[in-house]
Amino acid sequence: MSRILLIEDDHSVRISLAKALGRYGHDVASAPSGEDGLELFREHSLELVVLDLMLPGMDGFEVCRRIRAGGTVPIVMLTARGDDIDVVSGLEAGADDYVVKPVEPRVIDARIRAVLRRGATARPGPSTSVHGDLAIDRASMTVTRAGDEVAMTPTELRLLLELSGSPGQVLSRQQLLESVWEHSYLGDSRLVDNGVQRLRAKIEPDAAAPVFIQTVRGFGYRFGPL
């Protein structure tokens, strides 16, 4: 049973979604506002946060940034619009995935389980690989840079494992969507691009001039120098 925090201001949506996720086997704590949600987040040990973006007072973007600033707990955001700036802004704030309202409980359950699976298994490859000052240990599922451990969300870790598991090989956005996010719709490629952007900020000496994750324009990404 996974321990989940649901932050949603709409009372009927919050109650019905919490009950539905409970039936799917999740232990759900819920809050009607960003402030209440952050208080619950600080008080409880949680595995994942489901976060509505359009909250009164402190909005979901700020809640997401505050949660992400303090740790790597996965965040699945809820948005009323799936094709505009809200999704990109939410991903840039630190969300791992998103679900468009109206919410189908089975869909969000599938997204939750997919996010939680990401840090559970490593892509086949050498147990430890070293790339300059970057070391990836697949046995312990840890990443270090210059000897210091790099904190990563399950999504960021899985993305790095996928890319580094085939050094020099170009992986398309579609391949990464399917292997990391378990999505099949190419329109969700912004998940990949934002994931790479966040990953570069953590592992690259200079995110603006990446050494480890190279962009192959019009196709995808490659791990390793050009």
Descriptive account of the structure:
The strands form three sheets. Strands 2-1-3-4-5 form a five-stranded parallel β-sheet, sandwiched between helices. It has 226 residues and is α/β, with parallel strands linked by helices. The longest helix is centred in the last third of the chain and has 15 residues, at 189-203. The model has no long low-confidence stretch (mean pLDDT 90). Helices cover 41% and strands 22% of the residues. Strand 4 (75-79), helix 4 and strand 5 form a beta-alpha-beta unit.
Spell out the key features of this protein.
alpha/beta; 2 domains; Arc Repressor Mutant, subunit A; five-stranded parallel sheet; four-stranded antiparallel sheet; Rossmann fold; 226 residues; 41% helix
Structural topology:
Layout: E1 3-7, H1 11-23, E2 27-31, H2 34-43, E3 48-52, H3 60-70, E4 75-79, H4 85-93, E5 97-100, H5 105-118, E6 128-131, E7 134-137, E8 142-145, E9 148-149, H6 154-164, E10 170-172, H7 173-181, H8 189-203, E11 213-216, E12 220-223
Parallel strand pairs: 1-2, 1-3, 3-4, 4-5
Antiparallel strand pairs: 6-7, 7-8, 8-9, 10-12, 11-12
